Automatic annotation (TrEMBL):
<feature type="transmembrane region" description="Helical">
    <location>
        <begin position="21"/>
        <end position="39"/>
    </location>
</feature>
<dbReference type="GO" id="GO:0005886">
    <property type="term" value="C:plasma membrane"/>
</dbReference>
<keyword id="KW-0472">Membrane</keyword>
<keyword id="KW-1003">Cell membrane</keyword>
<dbReference type="InterPro" id="IPR023229">
    <property type="entry name" value="T2SS_M_periplasmic_sf"/>
</dbReference>
<keyword id="KW-0997">Cell inner membrane</keyword>
<keyword id="KW-0653">Protein transport</keyword>
<dbReference type="InterPro" id="IPR007690">
    <property type="entry name" value="T2SS_GspM"/>
</dbReference>
<dbReference type="Pfam" id="PF04612">
    <property type="entry name" value="T2SSM"/>
</dbReference>
<keyword id="KW-0812">Transmembrane</keyword>
<protein>
    <submittedName>
        <fullName>Type II secretion system protein M</fullName>
    </submittedName>
</protein>
<dbReference type="GO" id="GO:0015627">
    <property type="term" value="C:type II protein secretion system complex"/>
</dbReference>
<dbReference type="GO" id="GO:0015628">
    <property type="term" value="P:protein secretion by the type II secretion system"/>
</dbReference>
<keyword id="KW-1133">Transmembrane helix</keyword>
<keyword id="KW-0813">Transport</keyword>
<comment type="similarity">
    <text>Belongs to the GSP M family.</text>
</comment>
Length: 159
């Protein structure tokens, strides 16, 4: 390694002052061109592409939020009571409601005597997600045959 460095020093000192300046300017220009086209230009292109992706995602996010707000308004059944929403959804999937009670506060409680948890839990989640109601109380216990009995209280979801 020292031999190569010494050979380079000898070669450099053998050049005239004018050649040394010319070689230094040429090296600086080469480093500048390689730096611009090899580093700066790809970084600027990547930045522009990332900005375009961010703008596209922002537009999609706004559209999805608008769709979600419209879906929540439309699935909330135009201000229907939790009782109407829950009973309609239960009859739609054939959910066996044993008893039900409507509060003075607008809350609606149902009792289910025996149901599989694979049916009850997704149904409850979909009601919260799409029905414009929220679950305020959920109590379930396992029966001997592996089914559940449940007491679920619903209320109108906040707008």
């Amino acid at each position: 390694m020292n031999g190569r460095l010494e050979a380079a020093r000898l070669w450099w000192s053998a050049r005239t002052g004018r050649e040394q300046v010319l070689l230094a300017v040429m090296t600086a220009a080469l480093v500048g061109v390689l730096g611009w086209y090899g580093v700066v230009t790809p970084l600027m292109a990547a930045s522009d592409a990332a900005q375009a992706r961010v703008e596209k995602a922002s537009i999609q996010w706004g559209a999805l939020r608008g769709l979600a707000a419209g879906a929540n308004r439309s699935t909330a059944s135009g201000g229907a009571t939790p009782q109407a929403v829950v009973e309609a959804a239960a009859s739609k999937v054939g959910l066996p409601i044993a008893r039900h009670r409507q509060d003075a506060n607008g809350r609606f409680t149902i009792w289910i005597a025996a149901i599989d948890s694979k049916i009850l839990l997704p149904w409850t989640a979909s009601l919260e997600r799409e029905g414009g109601v929220k679950v305020t109380d959920f109590t379930a216990s396992r029966l001997d045959n592996g089914l559940l009995e449940a007491e679920i209280t619903f209320a109108r979801a906040a707008p």
